[in-house]
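Write out this protein's structure.
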Amino acid sequence: MNPIAILLTGGKATRLRPLSIEFSKGLIPLLNRPMLFYALDRLCEIGIKDVFVVVRSPEEVIEIETLDISDFPITLNAVIQAIPNGPADAVAQIPDKIIREQHVIVIATDSVLFGGDLSVDIECWEKSGSEAWLPLSYTDHPKNMGIAQLDGQRIVSFVEKPQDPLSNLACIAWWMLGPDAVDRILDDPVTNRKGELEISGTLSAMIQEGKYIGGREFDGKWLDTGDLRSLLFAQSQILDHYGNKNLISPDAEVYRCQIGKNVVIGKNCVLNGAILENVLVSPGVKINNVRYDGAVITPSGKIGRSQ
């Protein structure tokens, strides 16, 4: 087994506005690193070499192709999903000659995995002979997630946003797909009520048909960064893990400021007289005499509030 990986960074990312207006989704900063770097970290840990990033436009292709990935022993290529028509459609943008008859790991880039050992999932996937494998994580909000029910390591039920959840184990948007599952997603994907082509919905249909889809509870932490509140929470969790109260880029200029807990300040920022707590300050921001708590600040100075 020598999987390729596909990172999903397209879509409208409306819940991450205004950041997603000024950044490609995969390049939104998380502790002063592009968000997609966290997925690349984990992929390198499990030996993945070939990575494709699905983006929204030719301009975003250039951004991906000019990233400094010298720290990652991978090849990185970008493909365009011009119309956001769901994750299965994003996968379909990869040329058939590359993706057919392959094992494929598809990742929503705003799903950050911290700690744990993904190599265990790869080993279980390979040994199980399953058509797909899903790392799962406990959630307190099962009615808002895709929820799996396990019998051993076999997923016997997989329902998106169930009214009566059968478990608290959620899909964390790391889909590990064997060749048959890839073919099914490309040739006969499930369409949701919005008209989008689904990976999870297609796997759910396969489960109902008796196909073997495996999974296990991931032994690390799952950080969903799909909206501003969860992005700031993920920022706080990573800072806490490293024992840091905040993170200030070495080349930022900070004068007469009160920098509280969970504040990240990007490169080339100039702050004067700011009082900040629970804030993400994007690279290049220049602010004077402001007070923010629970906010993100874009390079142009737009303010997004966590709800």
